[in-house]
Amino acid sequence: MVKVTDKEGWNYEAKVAEVERIIARIESGDLELQEVFDQFASAVEYLRQCEGFLQERQQQVELLIETLQD
């Protein structure tokens, strides 16, 4: 599994903003059904990336805390 942080130019806030834009487009009702499915699939992938990013950061924080406690 490639770490999210290894992806050049990847940005958590940008992905969250893109998910929000996708949700707004879906809720607008202006998309064709196939576009809704495609946009939803993109949003799910972005959310998976964000989850991976947060898990990586949580592990780093736990390691730092463990180091401080030693």
From TrEMBL:
Q: Name one Pfam family in it.
A: Exonuc_VII_S
Q: Name one GO molecular function term.
A: exodeoxyribonuclease VII activity
Q: What class of enzyme is it?
A: hydrolase
Q: What is its EC number?
A: 3.1.11.6
Question: What's the chief localization of this chain?
Answer: cytoplasm
Q: Would you tell me the Gene Ontology cellular component terms?
A: cytosol; exodeoxyribonuclease VII complex
* Keywords assigned: Cytoplasm, Exonuclease, Hydrolase, Nuclease
The record lists the catalysed reaction(s) as: Exonucleolytic cleavage in either 5'- to 3'- or 3'- to 5'-direction to yield nucleoside 5'-phosphates
Q: Where in the cell is it found?
A: Cytoplasm
GO biological process terms, alphabetically, are: DNA catabolic process
How does the annotation summarize its subunit structure? Answer: Heterooligomer composed of large and small subunits.
Family stated for the protein in its record: Belongs to the XseB family.
Q: What does this protein do?
A: Bidirectionally degrades single-stranded DNA into large acid-insoluble oligonucleotides, which are then degraded further into small acid-soluble oligonucleotides.
Protein name as annotated: Exodeoxyribonuclease 7 small subunit
